[in-house]
């Protein structure tokens, strides 16, 4: 065998030199758009523009390590444990986090029911007990302590579509009003495409499908707390990081991750609005949620033009039915990408208002909100078609609904009307209080059921319904254009987000809580605390803490968790 060396090397071949030249030009092109010496205020990825979360400290690794070494001095090496909060935090570890810090705890809603059986031999105490939720949170209204049961909004829309004959596509000159939020999610984004090409694809889509007579209305997004925070948390499983982008830069992340960051979304909407206006379309930008502005724009346009509102949100249909005045106005249901149907449906709003009648359209906002929308909870086991049927058939239900239209209604009036309406929705009598109805329903289910009774199958208590009613009133007034402070209407701020208040009373009477008490001596700060583990706050019945501990507020993930 003969081994020889050559003066030639693969790195000096023509093909390799050509490839190296192309790669060098790519790097120079990227550095032109992202100057590494621009003096950024925050740590960020040079190529993608992704801004690091405030908690990222990997650039201070030496300082972090020195702190750990200092903490180890004088400790037994066999027993020392590293705290998670002492680790250096990288950008990757913060790429997908939930909004807020709520801990999802494992709750057994039947635990207090078991204790109820223990105390159930005393009939007078049994009636008293059902004035409480008998759970760490109202299971008929909440998924967890701070998360409302998600609304099934399409149910009421389906009932309306079934009650009113569909129309064919309107002919002639048409002015289209588009929900900008639905439009934003209508088109797919391809990673690697520049933002300019993505913007152009939206302009082409609108021109191709709707022609020149179009008004697009966009939501406004800020980092201020909103009563829709819970809905946004549910929809956005992750929170994308802040991206410093220009129109010439390529997209480097998935569309969902990019749009889950409010700053990214608002900057993109601003760029898209300018692009659409240059193309010749009218664009309106709301300061916050745009549903009311979209509906008002369509109603006003219908006075002069044959108008079609295009959207896929039930709230828009409800608002059109409530706000409609005159003219030829249609609601066109845009089929969602997940829908098997590709055809458009048209609803003549004027005809729908005539068929449903004034009794329904004047109370349609309450009818929608009482059983769940983006800011109110659905009621477990009660479909939204029930409220639509009641507002059509029951004068008593309409009387309660009318209270929520009053701008000057007092809280006492709202709470009383809300409880009566909830009782009717839960098939109670006119004179039944919710707490009495809960006891009756419990006795009926004990007699008839062959399986265990779950607390969510009972109507909510008067206390939890009170705050539900306040949130319903707040939402109805917002739709009517009357802005009210959420903190006074069933909401509180926690970690910079609005959290719904579920009740103002203990989960159970004192004689039952005494059967659920902890003996913690360490502050009740971990899931070892029996009260915390069951989703309950500590009380005076607890032997050591007497309620003065870390378990008297909402539970969060403990960053001081030990890492063995």
From TrEMBL:
List, alphabetically, the InterPro entries matched: PIN-like_dom_sf, Tesmin/TSO1-like_CXC
Q: Where is the Tesmin/TSO1-like CXC domain?
A: 513-555
Q: What highest taxon heads this organism's lineage?
A: Eukaryota
Kindly provide the name given to this protein in its UniProt entry: Tesmin/TSO1-like CXC domain-containing protein
């Amino acid at each position: 065998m003969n081994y020889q060396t050559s003066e030639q090397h693969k790195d000096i071949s023509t093909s390799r030199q050509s490839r190296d030249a192309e790669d060098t030009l790519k790097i120079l092109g990227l550095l032109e758009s992202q100057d590494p010496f621009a003096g950024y205020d925050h740590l960020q990825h040079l190529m993608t523009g992704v801004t690091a979360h405030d908690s990222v400290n990997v650039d201070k690794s030496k300082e972090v390590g020195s702190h750990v070494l200092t903490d180890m001095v004088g400790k037994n090496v066999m027993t020392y444990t590293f705290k998670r909060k002492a680790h250096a935090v990288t950008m990757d570890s913060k790429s997908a986090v939930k909004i807020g810090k709520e801990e999802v705890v494992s709750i057994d809603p039947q635990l207090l029911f078991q204790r109820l059986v223990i105390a159930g031999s005393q009939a007078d105490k049994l009636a008293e007990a059902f004035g409480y939720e008998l759970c760490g949170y109202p299971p008929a209204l909440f998924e967890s302590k701070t998360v409302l049961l998600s609304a099934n909004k399409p149910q009421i829309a389906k009932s309306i579509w079934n009650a009113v004959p569909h129309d064919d596509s309107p002919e002639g000159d048409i002015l289209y009003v588009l929900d900008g939020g639905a439009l934003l999610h209508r088109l797919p984004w391809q990673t690697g495409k520049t933002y300019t090409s993505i913007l152009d694809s939206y302009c082409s889509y609108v021109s191709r499908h709707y022609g020149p007579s179009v008004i697009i209305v966009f939501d406004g997004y800020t980092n201020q707390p909103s009563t829709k925070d819970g809905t946004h948390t549910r929809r956005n499983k992750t929170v994308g990081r802040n991206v410093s982008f220009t129109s010439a830069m390529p997209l480097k992340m998935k569309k969902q991750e990019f749009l889950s960051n409010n700053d990214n979304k608002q900057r993109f909407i601003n760029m898209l609005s300018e692009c659409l206006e240059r193309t010749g379309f009218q664009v309106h930008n709301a300061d916050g949620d745009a549903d009311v502005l979209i509906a008002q724009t369509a109603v006003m346009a219908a006075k002069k033009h044959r108008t079609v509102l295009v959207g896929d949100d039930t709230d828009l249909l409800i608002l059109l039915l409530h706000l409609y005045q005159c003219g030829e106005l249609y609601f066109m249901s845009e089929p969602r990408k997940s829908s098997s149907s590709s055809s458009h449906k048209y609803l003549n709003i004027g005809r729908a208002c005539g068929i449903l009648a004034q009794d329904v359209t004047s109370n349609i906002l309450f009818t929608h909100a009482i059983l769940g929308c983006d800011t109110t909870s659905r009621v477990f086991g009660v479909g939204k078609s029930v409220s639509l049927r009641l507002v059509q058939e029951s004068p008593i239900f309409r009387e309660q609904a009318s209270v929520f239209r009053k701008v000057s209604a007092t809280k006492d009036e709202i709470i009383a009307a809300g409880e009566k309406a909830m009782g009717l929705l839960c098939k109670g009598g006119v004179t039944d209080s919710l707490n009495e109805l809960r006891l009756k329903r419990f006795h009926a289910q004990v007699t008839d059921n062959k399986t265990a009774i779950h607390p969510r199958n009972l109507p909510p208590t008067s206390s939890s319904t009170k705050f539900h009613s306040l949130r319903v009133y707040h939402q109805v007034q917002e739709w009517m254009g009357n802005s009210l402070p959420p903190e006074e209407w069933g909401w509180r701020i926690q970690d910079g987000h609005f959290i719904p208040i579920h009740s103002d009373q203990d989960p159970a009477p004192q004689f039952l809580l005494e059967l659920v008490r902890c003996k913690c001596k360490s502050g009740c700060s971990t899931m070892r605390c029996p009260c915390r583990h069951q989703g309950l706050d500590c009380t005076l019945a607890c032997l050591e803490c007497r309620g003065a501990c870390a378990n008297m507020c909402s539970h969060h993930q403990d960053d001081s968790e030990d890492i063995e």
